[in-house]
Amino acid sequence: MTDREISAAQLKIKEWYARYGRDNLPWRMTDDPYHIYLSEVMLQQTQVKTVLERYYFPFLKKFPTLKALGDAPLDEVLKMWEGLGYYNRARNLHKTAQTLIGQAQGAAPTLPTEIDELIKLPGIGKNTAHAVAAFAFKQPVPVMEANVKRILCRLFLLKSPNDKHLWEYAYRLVDKNNPFDYNQAMMDIGATICLPKKPECGECPLEEICNGKKDPEHYPVKKSRKVPVREQNIQLHIYDDKLSLTQRTGKFLHRLWGFESVEMPQCATRHIGMVTHTYTHFKLVCNVFAYYETEPEQEHYFSVSEIKKLAISKVDEKIIKLYLHTISGE
DNA sequence: AACCCGTGGAT
DNA sequence: TATCCAAGGGT
């Protein structure tokens, strides 16, 4: 594209954004870098609707500042993240807040304004660093996430480009006079018009210059993924109407409370049902067994109301639900 | 570079 | 119901 064509496209984008942009997103209406940073992390691989309706406001109410976040116990942060998934994000958020508190030496902690400093912080990759720089600090840099990626693939007929290539296109197109509006507009166009399936090219401000408008769904090529099934036996240790839960230590669902799997359930257990849960890379099928103990054999036992205070993953929530359903039918 | 890491919206 | 995939990052 020539410079003239790029300028024309930027003008179209700007005009479209003024009329159709999503102007009610709270992280667009604040200047607080911490709020913008939090939204960017929450929105990683997560839809706007989920963050907006269930997580953004409660989290900020509980942790209004970087200082409040870093000073809080990690388990409280995880509890506010419960159900949002990719829990490493919560851990890295907490770690980053603590790092910045340390660097502030008693003053109020602040986020760095430069991309090369932002990207050193855990949980901030190239895109999030660019997003914070553009949205919180008005720097003339592009973002390059799922929406922008799809638009670029269609504009320039890219089937499976690498990120380096995509960043080159993104830098060429960004409106350096209006990086905030430009980037927000690109994400809105991707989220509302340039959809993965059945994009509405007739409504798109970039239709004239788009090379992929004839067969947009061919760009980019979608990769199929197969989801292997894993079977597990879950043995509930029950003592005095309380359940034994442990805090996970591995990479998967790290630090969340839940039930451990066993090779073989002990004798004197009762099969109370099955629970399935589909993750991105595998499907879990759990056979759940109840084991009633006459004296405590595990470390921690929790009543139902005590469990509600712990951060628990969705599959363990399903197991608890099955257990409650079982005992209510007795 | 390929794989791991969660959950739910949308169709 | 099954499938895709979302404001990605870490390893």
TrEMBL record:
<keyword id="KW-0479">Metal-binding</keyword>
<dbReference type="InterPro" id="IPR044298">
    <property type="entry name" value="MIG/MutY"/>
</dbReference>
<keyword id="KW-0378">Hydrolase</keyword>
<keyword id="KW-0411">Iron-sulfur</keyword>
<feature type="domain" description="HhH-GPD">
    <location>
        <begin position="42"/>
        <end position="192"/>
    </location>
</feature>
<dbReference type="GO" id="GO:0046872">
    <property type="term" value="F:metal ion binding"/>
</dbReference>
<keyword id="KW-0234">DNA repair</keyword>
<dbReference type="GO" id="GO:0006298">
    <property type="term" value="P:mismatch repair"/>
</dbReference>
<dbReference type="GO" id="GO:0035485">
    <property type="term" value="F:adenine/guanine mispair binding"/>
</dbReference>
<dbReference type="Pfam" id="PF00730">
    <property type="entry name" value="HhH-GPD"/>
</dbReference>
<dbReference type="InterPro" id="IPR023170">
    <property type="entry name" value="HhH_base_excis_C"/>
</dbReference>
<dbReference type="InterPro" id="IPR011257">
    <property type="entry name" value="DNA_glycosylase"/>
</dbReference>
<comment type="similarity">
    <text>Belongs to the Nth/MutY family.</text>
</comment>
<comment type="function">
    <text>Adenine glycosylase active on G-A mispairs. MutY also corrects error-prone DNA synthesis past GO lesions which are due to the oxidatively damaged form of guanine: 7,8-dihydro-8-oxoguanine (8-oxo-dGTP).</text>
</comment>
<dbReference type="GO" id="GO:0032357">
    <property type="term" value="F:oxidized purine DNA binding"/>
</dbReference>
<dbReference type="InterPro" id="IPR015797">
    <property type="entry name" value="NUDIX_hydrolase-like_dom_sf"/>
</dbReference>
<dbReference type="GO" id="GO:0000701">
    <property type="term" value="F:purine-specific mismatch base pair DNA N-glycosylase activity"/>
</dbReference>
<keyword id="KW-0227">DNA damage</keyword>
<protein>
    <recommendedName>
        <fullName>Adenine DNA glycosylase</fullName>
        <ecNumber>3.2.2.31</ecNumber>
    </recommendedName>
</protein>
<dbReference type="Pfam" id="PF10576">
    <property type="entry name" value="EndIII_4Fe-2S"/>
</dbReference>
<keyword id="KW-0408">Iron</keyword>
<dbReference type="InterPro" id="IPR005760">
    <property type="entry name" value="A/G_AdeGlyc_MutY"/>
</dbReference>
<dbReference type="InterPro" id="IPR003265">
    <property type="entry name" value="HhH-GPD_domain"/>
</dbReference>
<dbReference type="GO" id="GO:0006284">
    <property type="term" value="P:base-excision repair"/>
</dbReference>
<dbReference type="GO" id="GO:0034039">
    <property type="term" value="F:8-oxo-7,8-dihydroguanine DNA N-glycosylase activity"/>
</dbReference>
<dbReference type="InterPro" id="IPR003651">
    <property type="entry name" value="Endonuclease3_FeS-loop_motif"/>
</dbReference>
<dbReference type="GO" id="GO:0051539">
    <property type="term" value="F:4 iron, 4 sulfur cluster binding"/>
</dbReference>
<keyword id="KW-0326">Glycosidase</keyword>
